[in-house]
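Hi support team,

I've been running sequence recovery on a batch of backbones for a student project. Most finish fine, but this one hangs at about 90% for roughly twenty minutes before it completes. I'm not sure whether the input is malformed or the queue is just slow. I've pasted the structure tokens below so you can try to reproduce it. Let me know if you need the job ID as well.

Thanks,
M.K.
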């Protein structure tokens, strides 16, 4: 049975089962939760519309709601895992043009490939590339092709970003060795003011470094309580950027367009949401865009298109706790065309790289109350997805990105036991079966079992302790298994060629983590809030897949066992007018077979933010600082990043309360205020220098 037939059969079975659920059966709130150890105040400040009204009870970023960590609704602080939520307000304040801009201050998270945004690849706790699962509106973004980057998303369309750090295959399957980045786009009801049924927003922005320009229009409506929709489009363009020394960052210019459409129907506990998104990019960029500058760069004229769509259904009726069902069908299509002209001649190449992904994810949570203080939330489900790739060069099939197909099916279950309202025990297990096939190549079929056990204990009214053991795996990529053809030319000496390796074993990881969460209210003044969360971990990775580059051959092989250890700390304080956050991460990693340091370990990072809300001026202003400690623990042949670097940013947001200016928002910021020339350890290129940024938006 082919993958389309499997998908259709599973989808029909799941939708049929959901359709015949008794109408009287229901659950608690969608993705609700068994009472968690730390009870937090839920504040009323809107970070979506940007209203600056003073909340009656302060909240910090650690109070943000997430379902990414456990697939049941909880706050980032309560989750027995390391998860950070970046909300719409922070995205607006940072005037993010890329995912890197939005999350670069999150502890344990870095982006390699920068500052060329289309070359970005996420790195979580020292594991990057396809070792991080990326999801947008329920759609897995599985594209991976060497140096070409992984993240193609306009941040103007994004509402919230959840970053789950640490191995997470029990819920997310192959690829979650480092963690998960889960993005949700804008929603109509979050943009509408109370009592408003129809609205819109126009936005324009400018950034000085590279003369970046942004224009976007959004329309949204909720005619009644049963239906809402949103349509949004944006256009960006920028020239080459400059470092702090004034050096041009070669081929850092690009032009992009993005569109988003979303329709939601809801009633009687049912919710159906259809989302479609498109992203287009035009730029001149090196064929290996994550390298530095220099005359040796081979430029390519690139066009990129990524289309995706998801249909999400949930059932949440009010009379039962046994059914809290969710089903997602999704599709994603990534296509890249690169035109390369050889130096000074008409000889060149026309390359195309394409990946098509389709899949589904089904889950349900059943809740049971056995006695006072003793409850269970049982979450169970399945997933099926298929990747189909194809590469061409000058019209002929390209062996370096071979025609191949991958199919993964999985089933999982997770139980959240709550005992005496103080102890939560969460065991879980997932079984994955994956198949890989390519024309005239050996098929691969393997299975993996991923387990998790997490505990959270409310030690005192303000302190909770948590610990976890979690496993993850990454199945070999199609190019790692089947790539052939020329890797690079050595001139008269011949060529280096790829050698297929269908015997590759999957990478596996075992992570042990312990931590604590602290919650205080009314600390320095009435209504303020202080939250802190920290953890230490050790992640043992086996059968790590790497490229073995020899004189005439290149082959993906299982080369080492690795150990990554580290610690993270997050804190947030909000006193209504004053607010601040802190994030710190320290990571070490080595090949345990020979004691050599790993090349993918980022430098230590300390990020601070301090802000002040001035209601009389309808203004929020603040400062953000990042201290990068450098990285000298690297393998032989890898550049060290010497010295500490302190980067300062400032920001001001103004939302006038006058009726005549209702809906206006101005954001002004200066990144890298002192024009520091610096390079982050995982990037081969120096970062951009001072950048003045201004964005104006009007909601109506």
């Amino acid at each position: 049975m082919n993958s389309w037939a499997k998908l259709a059969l599973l989808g029909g079975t799941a939708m049929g089962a959901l359709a015949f659920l008794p109408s009287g059966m229901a659950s608690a709130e969608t993705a609700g939760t068994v009472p968690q150890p730390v009870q937090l105040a839920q504040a009323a400040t809107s970070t979506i519309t940007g209203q600056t009204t003073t909340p009656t009870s302060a909240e910090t970023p650690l109070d943000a709601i997430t379902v990414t960590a456990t697939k049941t609704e909880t706050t980032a602080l309560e989750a027995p895992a390391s998860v950070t939520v970046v909300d719409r307000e922070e995205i607006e304040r940072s005037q993010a043009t890329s995912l890197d801009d939005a999350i670069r201050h999150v502890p344990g998270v870095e982006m390699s490939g920068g500052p060329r945004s289309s070359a970005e690849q996420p790195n979580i706790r020292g594991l990057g590339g396809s070792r991080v699962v990326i999801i947008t509106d329920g759609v897995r973004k599985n594209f991976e092709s060497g140096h070409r980057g992984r993240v193609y998303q306009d941040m103007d369309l994004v509402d919230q970003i959840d970053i789950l750090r640490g191995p997470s295959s029990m819920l997310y399957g192959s690829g979650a060795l480092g963690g998960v980045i889960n993005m949700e786009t804008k929603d109509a009801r979050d943009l509408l003011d109370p009592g408003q049924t129809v609205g819109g927003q126009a936005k324009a922005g400018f950034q000085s470094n590279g003369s970046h320009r942004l224009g976007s229009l959004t329309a949204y409506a909720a005619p009644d309580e049963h239906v809402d929709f949103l349509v949004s489009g944006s256009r960006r363009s920028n020239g080459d950027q400059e470092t702090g020394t004034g050096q041009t960052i070669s081929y850092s210019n690009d032009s992009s367009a993005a569109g988003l459409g979303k329709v939601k129907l809801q009633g009687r506990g049912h919710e159906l949401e259809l989302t479609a998104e498109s992203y287009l990019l035009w730029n001149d960029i090196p064929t290996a865009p994550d390298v530095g500058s220099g005359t040796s760069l081979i430029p390519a004229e690139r066009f990129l298109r990524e289309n995706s769509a998801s249909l999400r259904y949930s059932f949440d009726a009010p009379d039962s706790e046994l059914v809290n069902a969710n089903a997602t069908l999704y599709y994603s299509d990534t296509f890249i065309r690169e035109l390369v002209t050889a130096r000074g001649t008409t000889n060149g190449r026309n390359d195309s790289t394409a990946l098509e992904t389709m899949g589904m994810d089904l889950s349900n949570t059943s809740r049971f109350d056995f006695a006072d203080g003793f409850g269970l939330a049982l979450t169970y489900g399945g997933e099926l997805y298929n990747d189909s790739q194809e590469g061409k060069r000058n019209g002929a099939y390209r062996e370096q990105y071979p025609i191949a197909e991958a199919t993964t099916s999985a089933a999982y279950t997770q139980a959240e036991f709550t005992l005496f309202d103080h102890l939560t025990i969460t065991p879980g297990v997932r079984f994955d079966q994956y198949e890989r096939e390519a024309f005239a190549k050996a098929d691969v079929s393997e299975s993996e079992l991923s387990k998790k056990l997490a505990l959270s204990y409310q030690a005192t009214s303000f302190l909770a302790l948590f610990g976890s053991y979690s496993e993850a795996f990454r199945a070999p990529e199609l190019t790692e298994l089947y790539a052939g053809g020329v890797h690079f030319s050595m001139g008269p000496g011949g060529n280096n060629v790829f050698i297929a390796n269908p015997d590759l074993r999957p990478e596996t990881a075992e992570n042990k983590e312990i931590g604590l969460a602290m919650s205080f209210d009314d600390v320095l003044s009435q209504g303020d809030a202080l939250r802190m969360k920290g953890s230490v971990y050790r992640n043992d990775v086996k059968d790590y897949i790497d490229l073995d580059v020899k004189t005439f051959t290149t082959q993906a092989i299982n080369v080492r066992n690795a150990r990554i250890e580290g610690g993270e700390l997050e804190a947030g304080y909000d006193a209504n007018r004053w607010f601040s956050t802190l994030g710190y991460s320290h990571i070490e990693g080595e090949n345990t077979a020979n004691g050599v340091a790993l090349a993918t370990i980022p430098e230590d990072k300390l990020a601070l933010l301090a802000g002040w809300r001035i209601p009389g001026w309808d203004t929020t202003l603040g400062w953000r600082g990042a201290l990068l400690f450098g990285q000298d623990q690297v393998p032989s042949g890898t550049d060290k990043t010497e010295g500490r670097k302190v980067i300062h940013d400032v920001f001001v947001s103004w939302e006038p309360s006058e009726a005549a200016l209702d809906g206006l928002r101005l954001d002004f910021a200066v990144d890298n205020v002192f024009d520091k020339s610096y390079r982050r350890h995982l990037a081969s290129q120096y970062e951009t220098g001072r950048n003045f940024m201004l964005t104006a938006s009007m909601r109506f």
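--
Follow-up from support: It reproduced on our side and the slowdown came from queue contention, not your input. Confidence is low (pLDDT under 50) at residues 1-56. No action needed from you.
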